[in-house]
Write a structure and sequence with these properties.
Blueprint (H helix, E strand, L loop, with lengths): L2 H16 L15 H18 L5 H14 L2 H8 L11 E5 L9 H9 L3 E5 L7 H12 L7 E3 L9 E5 L2 H11 L4 E4 L3 E5 L6 H12 L9 E7 L5 H7 L9 H16 L4 E3 L4 E4 L9 E7 L2 H10 L4 E5 L27 H6 L2
Parallel strand pairs: 1-2, 1-4, 2-3, 4-5, 6-7, 6-11, 7-10, 9-10
Antiparallel strand pairs: 8-9
Helix pairs in contact: 1-3, 1-6, 8-9
Length: 352
Amino acid sequence: MILEDKKKAFIQLGLFLKQFTAQPYKTNSTVLHNNDFFFEFSYLIDRLHDSNSWFKRNQLEFTFQSWSEALTSENLAKWLQAYDLKEEPLKTVGLILAGNIPMVGFHDVLSVLLSGNKALIKLSSNDTLLIPFILKYVATVEPRFANRYQITKEKLENFDAVIATGSDNTARYFEYYFGKYPNIIRKNRNSVAVLNGQESKEDMLALGEDVFRYFGLGCRNVSKLFVPRGYVFDPFFEGLFVFKDVLDDDKYTNNYDYNKAVFLMSNFNLLDNGFFTIKEDTSYASPISSAFYEYYDSLDEVQEKLTNDADKIQCVVSNNLVKDSIPFGSTQNPELWDYADNVDTMEFLLSL
């Protein structure tokens, strides 16, 4: 299969998903196979919250918007121009996907299929419906993809390489079982913000998006703040205030109440706005409904810490205060070429 045919199928997927970015959902007559898939996908969206109560409709629509913007002819061309994709390795790549946020493992699936390999997919129990449906759509647009992927509930067997995503704990098992194969094994990572007290109101609103999108469940959600000594947190909390409706979600509220109680029983000093807590802590992984913060005396000190802890960090947001940081509000809109853990998945797949 030539690259252009593969790209056309995923461009159609982007157009298909664009129909589901805001209600009421409206059909686009130019989208292929809408008669077969539009209403079925609408029904699936209604069911997703029952399968995973974190998958709220507005979060799903954000996911579809992000992917519809990513899967364009221009973005695919920009991403893939760096690689030689004339030959197809046709190796079978085992994919163990995460499920903490909707479609979080889809980039790996996309990379395997565009690289000319075959995907042997083990879904997370938290996200079992979306990716199978989307692959069914892609294989209807381009039938030659039908034998390029397989979804299994069984132990992975008969594969040539593995990409596995999990926690630090599961990564040890992945390394034990898959260490003899070419592999990418991803562990826990978190994202951080570096502030200096000169951020605008708009910056703080955008940072709120980085904190609260997907209820903070993603590795690209900001869970740690670096602030100058003496920093006043009022602007930060003011930026978060527009997200107070998270308390309408019972699961989030239960986490907030529980984690706050645990912190208080441990006699930690907390700052609390009624739906989100922050506490001083050198760790990166804060519980849902909370963030940690750490004071700094110089930005050089922060840069050194971020460099030393690079294997724990997914992305950094700031107003260009530290190297390789990205703008506030952009953590959940990665480009196709923004690889998880900064490991070039496509290069790995083409080397098989």
